[in-house]
Design brief:
Blueprint lengths: L9 E5 L2 E5 L2 H8 L4 H6 L6 H12 L5 H4 L9 H8 L3 H4 L7 H9 L5 H7 L5 H9 L3 H10 L4 E2 L3 E2 L6 E4 L8 H13 L6 E4 L6 H18 L5 E3 L3 H9 L7 E4 L4 H7 L3 H14 L9 E5 L3 H4 L8 H14 L4 E5 L11 H17 L4 E4 L10 H13 L4 E4 L4 E2 L4 E2 L3 H11 L5 H9 L3 E3 L4 E2 L5 H10 L5
Parallel strand pairs: 5-6, 5-12, 6-7, 8-9, 9-10, 10-11
Antiparallel strand pairs: 1-2, 3-4, 13-14, 15-16
Length: about 475
């Protein structure tokens, strides 16, 4: 007689009912907290009961299983090859005897100190990080991420404990230089911009990118700001900008967790290696040489039909293997940007943001988060306030700073300059130390310890502002 459960690699019996999961990918997907993208992909658990059973089953899976069973075939995917070929068996030996559930308990224990977690990083694969996150509560994700310290540097030092950096994002719908400059001044006066001054260009080509790069470089040099700039153009454009002599600080690229996703984005690992080498050759960093800036987001693999039947959070974690390979200054999960098809409401966005931050930090990345949502999502600014605060508690590396929290070029809602100031005030988090010293020198803060803004415009900005408004006082 045919056994209906013979096709299942994993089984869990509850009373008279047997729950079956076809393979590790199926088990991982069914164990994932509910989100619309997995429902869209047809991989989600059909009920809360099935999800709980999948999580219990996943907790019993040995971590070694993830080294034996590739979720995306080794022969078909260069990211799978990167993950398995670069895996550090010596680092892994610390946890090699554990199951996913045992790994969770160990991460939450006092044995997993910041120093031990730093040593462990090269032994953890993205799939292991994704698996353990699926059986963790939000507070677990926050507690462990808080213990993961990841320091990077270029013209300032990012990621030190007790610090929160910001990307100043002065986007403009026509790339108008005066409008961009006004946003930059506004952000700097709120103490934003220590992670990067980063522009998403409205017109995406080499000529326009070079124009924006030069403009930001002039501002940084003129005011001697200890920060770095980036135009978020395609990596191949940035390589061309460097070849033409543009003053490039950071190389940007959106990345995904499967080779097919990155093919759809128009690059591969070799492209990133070429770009990193080109940026390093400029030697523009003063306190460090982390020259890459990556952005990710749950749902990108599915939207490119490149998820190989995996859940979106596991695909997201695999993108962090790509990032880790190139020692980035910054990695940013743009958590609610793709839309409600992938993360439906404030609850799903909050959960995804905490998962991404946890997985990135556990794998050794300088993980920031664009706390954001699109206008057709079931979310509002109160949801973003909550996630911003939770991420601040969790030791998030950086968040966005955008005028009025409304990006008028990309048309989505995110965090504003004053949101970042709020987070620093309520949680006592300082900007990067070099940038903090510059804020004091420029008299932007009246009191750097209490984050009290100066009520009068700093003298150094008077002339610039007068020029911008045509000489009026």
């Amino acid at each position: 007689m045919h056994n209906p459960h013979s096709a299942f690699q994993f089984r869990h019996v509850v009373g008279e009912r047997t729950f079956g999961f076809v393979d590790l990918a199926d088990l991982m997907a069914k164990a994932t907290p509910a989100r619309s993208g997995d429902r869209l992909a047809g991989v989600a658990a059909e009920s809360a009961e099935e999800r709980a059973i999948a999580q219990m089953t996943l907790a019993d899976v040995p971590l070694k299983r993830f080294l034996e069973e590739a979720l995306v075939p080794y022969e078909e995917d260069e990211i799978t090859r990167l993950i398995l070929d670069d895996h550090d068996k010596n680092a892994f030996s610390l946890i090699s005897h554990l199951t996913v559930g045992g790994f969770r308990d160990w991460l939450l224990s006092d044995l997993a100190t910041s120093e031990v977690l730093t040593t462990l990083r090269p032994g953890v694969t993205p799939e292991m990080a994704a698996a353990v996150s699926k059986i963790m509560r939000n507070q677990d994700l926050i507690l462990v991420a808080k213990k993961c310290h990841v320091k990077t540097a270029f013209r300032n030092t990012i990621g030190l404990p007790g610090h929160l950096s910001t990307r100043l994002q002065p986007n403009h719908p026509t790339d108008d230089l005066t409008g961009i400059a006004a946003s930059m001044l506004d952000g700097l006066l709120y103490a934003c911009g220590d992670a990067v001054i980063g522009i998403n260009p409205a017109t995406d080509n080499v000529q326009q990118a070079t124009r924006l790069i030069k403009m930001m470089d002039e501002v940084i040099q003129h005011y001697e700001i200890p920060t770095q700039s980036c135009v978020l153009t395609h990596v191949t454009n940035t390589i061309e900008c460097i070849e033409q002599g543009a003053p490039v600080d950071l190389v940007f690229q959106s990345i995904g967790g499967t080779q097919a996703t990155n093919d759809s984005f128009g690059f591969n690992l070799a492209t990133l290696a070429e770009a990193q080498a080109a940026a390093l050759s400029l030697n523009r960093g003063t306190v460090g040489n982390n020259v890459m800036y990556f952005e990710t987001g749950q749902g990108s693999a599915l939207s490119a039909n490149a998820n190989h039947g995996l859940d979106q959070q596991t695909c997201e974690a695999r993108a962090y293997a790509v990032a880790r390979k190139f020692n980035p200054l910054l990695v940013n999960t743009v958590v609610g940007f793709i839309g409600p098809e992938y993360l439906y409401d404030g609850k799903e966005i909050t959960r995804a943001g905490l998962e991404d931050h946890f997985c990135g930090k556990l794998l050794g990345l300088p993980m920031g988060c664009d706390v954001c949502y699109t206008n057709h999502a079931e979310a509002d600014q109160n949801d973003m306030d909550n996630l911003l605060t939770l991420l601040g508690v969790a030791g998030c590396t950086f968040v966005m700073g955008i005028p009025g929290s409304d990006d008028i070029m990309l048309n989505y809602q995110t965090t504003s300059f004053h949101d970042a100031l709020y987070a620093r005030r309520v949680l006592g988090l300082k900007p990067a130390p070099e940038f903090d010293a510059w804020l004091a020198k420029m008299e932007i803060f009246k009191n750097n310890e209490q984050f009290t803004l100066n009520h009068k415009l700093p003298d150094a900005f008077h002339k610039s502002l007068n020029r911008m408004i045509g000489g009026r006082s």
